[in-house]
Design goal:
The structure is a single chain. The chain is an all-alpha fold. It has one domain: Orthogonal Bundle (ADP-ribosylglycohydrolase fold), CATH 1.10.4080.10. Helices cover 60% and strands 0% of the residues. It contains 17 helices and no strands. Helix 7 runs antiparallel to helix 8. The longest helix has 21 residues. It is globular and about 55 Å long. It starts with a helix and ends with a helix.
Length: 365
C-alpha cells in the first residue's frame, strides 16, 4: 500500500467537497457548468505560473462541514490511537463553535449544543433523542468517515471497521439508515485500498464484495427488528425493504453498465439528497461509472477527475456526494491523479496530506 493512496483518499475528499460546494442544493446541474468551473481553476493556475501573479477574480474554495468533521475524526484517531467517543464528540462540538459557518445543518447543531451542555454525561444521548427518538438518517456520518477506513486499514484491523464506523456515526446520527450508510461508505473506501492497482479493477467484483459485506450488516439489523419506518420524514420508497442498501447496490449493477445513463434516471432510481440512502449509493455509482466508462464530455480527463466532475453533475447534495465518491476513487488512484490546480485553490489540502501521512504511519506501530 502506498502513501499516495492514503493521500488520494483524504485530499481527494477535500477538493471534491470544495468544488462540489459551488453547486450544493441545485437540483439540476449541467456537466458543462461543472467542467467550466474546473477549467477556470486550471486556467487561472496556469496564468499564475506564467506571470507570477494570481488573477484578481480568482478565489480560493472553502471546505464545508463535510471536511470539518472528517478532520475531527482523523485528529481524534491520530491522537488517541483508538476510538475515544468523548474526545471525538468534543472535537465535533469545538470545531462547530470555532467556525459555525461551514454549512452545518440545523439538526446536527442541536446535537452540538447538547454535547456542549455540562450536564450531558452520555455523548450519544443528544443524537439519540432527535426526531422523537428515531435519530437522523442523513449522510453526515458517511461524509466524514474516510479517515476511519484508513485508520483501520493501516492497523490491519479492518475486521473492526464496522464497529468503529458505528461508534463514530452514532455521535450525530443514530437512525439505522444513517449508520449503515456510513458503514457502506467505509467499506467502499476499504475495498478500494485492497485493490492492487486500478489495472485489476473489476466493477462487478467490487459491488459483489460490498453486497456480501452489507448482508452481514443489514441482515443483523433485521434480526434486531430495527424499524427504519420510524424515521423523521415522510415514508421513503425503500422503507419497507429489509435490506435497502443491498437493493440500491443491485440497482447500480445495471445502471453502471448503460451506454447512455440519463442523470434523471440516476436521481429517480438512486437519489441525490441529504439522506444516506439517497446519497451514499449515488457516490458509489459515480465512482464505478467513471471507472469502467469514459464519461461523455469528460474525455481526456483521468478517472479521478471524471469521478468528481460526474458526481457533482448529478446535482442535489453535490459537495457530500462528490466528497464520498472522491474518497473511494482517491483510495484507488492515488494523489497523483488529483489536478494540481484543484489542490492549489482548495482550502484544507495541506492538512489532509498531513493527516493521511499520520494515518499511514500507524501501520508501523
Amino acid at each position: 500500500m502506498t502513501l499516495s493512496r492514503f493521500k488520494g483518499s483524504l485530499v481527494g475528499a477535500v477538493v471534491a467537497d470544495c468544488m462540489g460546494s459551488l453547486f450544493e442544493g441545485i437540483s439540476t446541474v449541467s456537466l458543462s457548468s461543472v467542467l467550466e468551473s474546473a477549467e477556470n481553476l486550471e486556467k487561472n493556475r496556469q496564468i499564475q505560473r506564467e506571470h507570477g501573479t494570481r488573477p484578481a477574480d480568482t478565489y480560493g474554495l472553502r471546505f464545508t462541514d463535510d471536511t470539518a468533521m472528517a478532520r475531527s475524526v482523523a485528529a481524534s484517531l491520530l491522537e488517541k490511537k483508538s476510538f475515544d467517543a468523548q474526545d471525538m464528540a468534543k472535537r465535533f462540538a469545538d470545531e462547530y463553535y470555532k467556525e459555525p459557518d461551514r454549512g452545518y445543518g440545523f439538526n446536527v447543531v442541536t446535537v452540538f449544543e447538547g454535547l456542549k451542555n455540562p450536564e450531558t454525561k452520555d455523548v450519544y444521548e443528544p443524537a439519540r433523542v432527535q426526531f422523537g427518538g428515531s435519530g437522523s438518517y442523513g449522510n453526515g456520518g458517511a461524509m466524514r468517515i474516510a479517515p476511519a477506513s484508513l485508520f483501520a486499514f493501516a492497523r490491519n484491523k479492518s475486521s473492526e471497521l464496522q464497529d468503529l464506523v458505528s461508534g463514530v456515526t452514532r455521535l450525530t446520527h443514530t437512525n439505522v439508515l444513517g449508520v449503515n450508510g456510513a458503514i457502506l461508505e467505509a467499506f467502499a473506501v476499504d475495498e478500494s485500498l485492497r485493490l492492487k492497482s486500478e489495472a485489476v479493477f473489476d466493477a462487478q467484483t467490487f459491488l459483489d464484495s460490498l453486497i456480501e459485506k452489507m448482508k452481514g450488516v443489514e441482515t443483523e439489523d433485521d434480526k434486531k427488528d430495527t424499524n427504519p419506518e420510524s424515521s423523521h420524514s415522510k415514508k421513503r420508497k425503500l422503507d419497507d425493504h429489509p435490506t435497502p442498501y443491498i437493493a440500491q447496490l443491485e440497482r447500480i449493477k445495471h445502471l453502471m453498465l448503460e451506454d447512455s445513463l440519463d442523470t434523471k434516471v440516476v436521481v429517480e432510481e438512486i437519489g441525490h439528497d441529504v439522506s444516506a440512502i439517497g446519497s451514499v449509493p449515488t457516490a458509489i455509482l459515480a465512482f464505478l461509472r467513471a471507472a469502467i466508462k469514459s464519461i461523455p464530455g469528460l474525455e481526456g480527463r483521468n478517472k479521478f477527475e471524471q469521478t468528481v466532475l460526474y458526481a457533482i453533475s448529478l446535482g442535489g447534495d453535490t459537495d457530500t456526494i462528490a466528497t464520498m465518491a472522491a474518497a473511494i476513487a482517491g483510495a484507488l488512484y492515488g494523489v497523483e491523479q488529483i489536478p494540481e490546480a484543484w489542490q492549489y485553490y482548495c482550502e484544507g489540502v495541506a492538512d489532509a496530506e498531513t493527516m493521511a501521512e499520520g494515518l499511514y504511519k500507524l501501520e508501523a506501530l
